[in-house]
Design goal:
The protein is an alpha/beta fold. It has a single domain, classed as Alpha-Beta Barrel (TIM Barrel), CATH 3.20.20.70. 44% of the residues lie in helices and 18% in strands. It has ten helices and eight strands. The protein has an eight-stranded parallel beta barrel with strand order 1-2-3-4-5-6-7-8, surrounded by six helices. Helix 4 links the parallel strand 3 and strand 4. Helix 2 packs parallel to helix 3 and helix 2 packs parallel to helix 10. The protein starts with 5 loop residues before the first strand and ends with a helix. 50% of the residues are buried.
């Protein structure tokens, strides 16, 4: 069973000159439970090469690797799953291509998006942008915690909040009904990703126990 407590969207573009796989290595050691590979600006071959370097790290830690957007690459490297947005391949088609055993995540903003994604075979929902983020230029206007509350009440699959989440506000997302949080800059830009992940996990786990 996948635990979605702390989900890292490992953004190669944001990492800059730092090796994203080393960031991932530290983050999973600190308690990240799911890793998504994001590389919006890279070509297919570069994403494939990066995924092949990253997957052994996540497999060793027992953490699923999810490939953002690129279902073909997820299948090619036998990643644990893929994630699609509302402007990407439709979730129903993504599920058909991935098959029944791979993890499928879908980005949503509204209850109707969420219910459709659940019906189409999503295993989890990424809900956001919650607080406002600079990591995703296409995130749009923040939707706030109320969106988490509304969606979490209506779906049966895990809900993960994303967008401007940090150690200071992570507990609010869990208290609003999320099963976990997704972060980008909070770990990718952290001086020590392992310590930053430990701090976030402690906050999340304490909030989930309440």
């Amino acid at each position: 069973m996948v635990r979605y407590n702390l989900y890292l969207a490992a953004d190669q573009d944001l990492a800059g000159n730092r090796q994203i796989e080393r960031i991932v290595e530290g983050a999973v050691a600190g308690g990240v439970t799911v890793v998504q590979l994001r590389a919006k600006k890279a070509g297919a071959r570069d994403i494939m090469a990066l995924a092949n370097r990253m997957h052994p790290i996540t497999k060793k830690a027992g953490v699923p690797l999810i490939v953002n957007d690129r279902i073909d690459i997820a299948l090619a490297i036998d990643a644990e799953g893929a994630h699609v947005g509302q402007s990407d391949l439709p979730a129903a088609l993504a599920r058909k291509i991935l098959g029944p055993r791979k993890i499928l995540g879908v980005s949503v903003k509204t209850v109707s998006d969420a219910l459709r994604a659940q019906k189409d075979g999503a295993d989890y929902l990424g809900v956001g942008d919650i607080f406002g983020t600079r990591s995703k230029k296409d995130a749009g206007k923040p939707i706030g915690l109320e969106a988490i509350r509304r969606i979490a009440r209506r779906v049966r699959i895990p809900v993960i909040g994303i967008g401007g989440i940090s150690a200071e506000n992570a507990y609010q997302v869990i208290e609003a009904g999320a099963d976990g949080i997704a972060v980008i800059s909070a770990l990718v830009l952290a001086p020590n990703p392992a310590i930053a992940a430990q701090e976030l996990r402690a906050i999340i786990d304490a909030s989930l126990r309440k």
